[in-house]
Amino acid sequence: MGNKSSLMLQEQDIRDIQAETGFLPSQIERLYSRFTSLDKGDNGSLSREDFLRIPELAINPLGDRIVHAFFKESEDDRVNFCQFVRVLAHFRPIKRTQDNKLNAREEKLRFAFKMYDLDDDERISREELLAVLHMMVGENISDEQLNSIAERTILEADRDGDQMISFEEFCTALERTDVEQKMSIKFLK
Amino acid sequence: MWRAWASRACVLVSLTLWVAGNSWAAALESSSHGGEGGDGNASAHDDVNGSCHSEGHEGGIHLMSFRWHEVGVYYTVTTFVIVAGLCKVGFHQIHWLSNKIPESCVLIILGVLLGVVVFFTVDDGNGTSSCSFNFEVPHFTSDKFFFVLLPPIILESAYSLHDRAFFDNLGTVLVFAVIGTLFNIFTIGPALYGVAQGGLMGTIAIGFTETLVFSSLISAVDPVAVLAIFQELGVNKDLYFLVFGESLLNDGVTIVVYTTLTSFVTMEVISAGQYALAVASFFIVVFAGAVIGILFGCVTALITKYTAEVRVVEPLALLGLAYLCYLTAELFHFSGIISLIMCGLFQANYAFQNISQKSYTCVKYFTKMASATSDTIIFMFLGMALVSKDHIWHPGFILWTIGFCLIFRFIGVALITIVMNHYRMKKIGLQEQFITAYGGLRGAVAFSLANMLDQTIDPRRIFITTTLMVILFTGFIQGISIKPLVNLLRIQKKRSDHKKLNEEINDTAMDHIMAGVEEILGQHGDFYLRELIIHYNDKYLKKWFVKPCSESKLTRLFEKIAISEHYAHLYGPVAMIEDKVKPLVTKSSASKRVRTISVSPSHNDEILLQPNLTLEDDEDDEFEEAETKVIQPAEPVELRRKPSYLPIRRSRVASESSATEPQAQRSHDAQALRKAFRNNPYNKLHYKYNPNLVGEEDQELAEHLHRRHLNARRMTRLASCSRLPVSNIAESLRPKTEMIFGHLEDGVAELVQRHRERRSTMSLRRRPPSLQACFSSPEPGHPMVPSSILRELREVSEPRSSLPDIRDCDSHSRLSATISMRGERQQFFPDRSEGEKTTSPEVTFQNEKLEELVPMVATSNTQPSSPKKPDSENEDVV
């Protein structure tokens, strides 16, 4: 399947990526072919528009935020293949035999945390939470109600009384959630 | 305990005998038309007999007549159902037994006993009188099973399948249900045939197709049996739905293979076309059944959309249409179970949002009651079926069947999990595989299929007996041993606590994230599918089937939390006292000379609680002091305008030397209190899943208490580790805390020490002051006061006279609430605003008395209507 694309991907690159992310070579090749198919302008990197061109992402309420997460490390608002794979590596299932930093529970949680943290200040404020809630809930809920839900949610997780949810508080609030299972994908080979 | 058990057993047995005897007497009497009836059993009916006798000959008015012919059938059936229900009651009274043996086993045993009684009495009747009986003890028939007993159980389980965990495991469940069942059928059958041909089984004449028919009915895991055992087990949801879902969904396979093979038995030549038809019929049976279920589910949703004015028909619409759906599917010989499951799922998804809370409760309770009754009757029927002259025992065949069932079940599960684990995110561990295989119980479905076998099939009676034996083996041996095994293998148990808002929001967020990642990857996996389904469900289906004003899941969760918090704050302190009431009640019998005094200052208003002072006789002087101090305040100030919890009308100070009848008084008080608790509106709020509906009120209260404690603790922690400088807190809170925490700093540390000592020695003489309780851990017996809190309190408070009763706790959480929530207070603690009006405590105690005073609620003068009062405050939150 990835014959053509693998030509452009050097053996060394594959080995480097494999070492860093823990993906199998076959998975990397598959990801690369997906990457090139998304890369409409053949620039070797993806822009936000490239991502948002995926039709299903349009109905995803968090689509924008997810795309944004890919651009965390890039300076020029473009994502190269390495960055692309590194972000996706968060969603590899955790295996006991393999020790990899990228797909640890904390990293998975951090990715989820970043969905709420709109201004990148490592804290979720009430306004941020409200904005994300607005994206996720449908029409049948009043603003007032949503407001109280947001307040209540902050109150529930907030431990140090600053009316914000820090990452530590976020992790504590979700300590019962099976993040390892829920935020993992079976990557095709 | 033994005596109680014996008496209960006696009652049960005599009841059973009475029913049997009565029916027999009635039958005898009707057959001989009241001829002699002089038997001891029938003597009760003598005068009835007389009237019956005269009825036969003369017309005219009769004051009394005996109409067994018309009423008899209903009478016996109803009596039977009631007896079955009573057996359940009896079983749950015998705790040492119910802990070890599953209910189904006991019911089977009782069924056998009843069967023996019926067997001998009816047999005796047959021998003495040659007339025909119109009397019949209900017994197992396939029709009764499939059309009356099974549907309620399936409907109840369909509602319970409306769960995320089930849909997450749906793929594996389906593979288990279809492939696993087929694997079992086509391994057990040939293996049995091989063994029979090999002569290892003893003499048996059995054909290949017949063995396959038998294996098709014995292979299917039974939903009734699985439900009966697994509900008591309390294993984690994934495992539960894996086994239970399989048992439900294998119905389609079982029906098709069974009917196909039974028709093959009579056929001479089987063409290839027949096989193709059999395969096609599988899809028709399953999918047509599912379509019928979906149709009926949607119709229910549409109907309930317009029932806002006629709430009474809502339960009828749900239950009636569900049953009609089952019957429709059965009418065309589709899978009734599958259609009922689909119908139930659609109802749970759409119709439940349309109906009122009370209709929902009604539906839930009715299905639960009906399924519990059906379940009981089915197992008793199975026991009764064991006592029959028709059985042909073939030990070889029975043993080989049991062996093969077990072996191939384990092999099948192992093979399928190996394959499925390849695709699953959450792997099925070895322990869980073992329980899945071991939990493959057989039950009444198999037995009724065996009963339905054509009389022409030769070894029918062997099949029936063997099926029954397999059911008994799986029910008794596996059913009893599975609980220790679950503990031994350390299977993860079911989580019972409630979801938090954070978790709910994040679950949704994570679903979206994962769907988004799958979209970016171009992999259309589970998350993507879920997202798509949810999207179209929200966009179209919900609009059609659900009332526009229905609330989202998040809103409902929020409301639930908000309301429960509201009530927790309204009733929290009262509930907290219950902790102390219970030991008081139980221990009061041991305490001898305790003085009880209801401190009730003269005032016509209602106060929050009446502290009961319990003192030793040798402390009489101090007691007098305390009493005078209690009633001294000239102008008692109203603590709250609206009492938030258990309002009690004040009366004069009632001092009594309770040494004469302390127990009666106490237990009376406690009972009144319990009653008041039960009437607490909070209890009526949410209904939990609870198979026998045991202790619903207590459960709610316990939950409520737990939350209250957690909340109080969290607040305390918040207060103690707030970032604000301590002086600030002290400044802002002084007016309130002055009265609340005055005098604290002297005694708290000492109190903690004393409290611990008391707890450890379980001393009755001195009770911990209530203040202590506010800061202790939620579980009684683990008192712990963080030193930081003590320090904090010391800094915050000033030595002044205070009110060391349960109010402190409330005020304390108020204090913390003030710190942590400021503006939100109004929102979440509506009752707090009332509390702001507090000016000063009406009762003052000397600090030295603090540890002697016991907050105990005197409820003897509780107003019957009092618990309803706070209801009016509900609007604040909802």
UniProtKB/TrEMBL annotation, chain A:
SMART domains: EFh. GO terms for cellular component: cytoplasm; nucleus; plasma membrane. InterPro entries: Calcineurin_B_homologous, EF-hand-dom_pair, EF_Hand_1_Ca_BS, EF_hand_dom. Pfam families: EF-hand_7. It comes from Penaeus vannamei (Whiteleg shrimp). This is Putative calcium-binding protein p22. Residues 26-61, 104-139, 145-180 form the EF-hand domain. Keywords: Calcium, Cell membrane, Cytoplasm, Lipoprotein, Membrane, Metal-binding, Myristate, Nucleus, Phosphoprotein, Protein transport, Repeat, Transport. It is found in: Cell membrane; Cytoplasm; Nucleus. The keyword ATP-binding does not apply. One of its GO terms (biological process) is protein transport. Belongs to the calcineurin regulatory subunit family. CHP subfamily. GO terms for molecular function: calcium ion binding. It comes from the Eukaryota. The keyword Chaperone does not apply.
From TrEMBL, chain B:
Pfam families: Na_H_Exchanger. Residues 654-665 have a biased composition (Polar residues). GO terms for molecular function: potassium:proton antiporter activity; sodium:proton antiporter activity. The keyword Transport applies. One of its GO terms (biological process) is sodium ion import across plasma membrane. It is found in: Membrane. Residues 1-25 form the signal peptide. Residues 650-670, 759-786, 822-878 are annotated as: Disordered. Keywords: Antiport, Ion transport, Membrane, Signal, Sodium, Sodium transport, Transmembrane, Transmembrane helix, Transport. It is a multi-pass membrane protein. The chain crosses the membrane at residues 72-91, 103-122, 173-193, 205-230, 273-303, 365-385, 397-421, 462-486. The keyword Transmembrane applies. One of its GO terms (cellular component) is plasma membrane. Residues 87-487 form the Cation/H+ exchanger transmembrane domain. PANTHER family: NA(+)_H(+) EXCHANGER PROTEIN 7, SODIUM/HYDROGEN EXCHANGER. Belongs to the monovalent cation:proton antiporter 1 (CPA1) transporter (TC 2.A.36) family. This is Sodium/hydrogen exchanger.
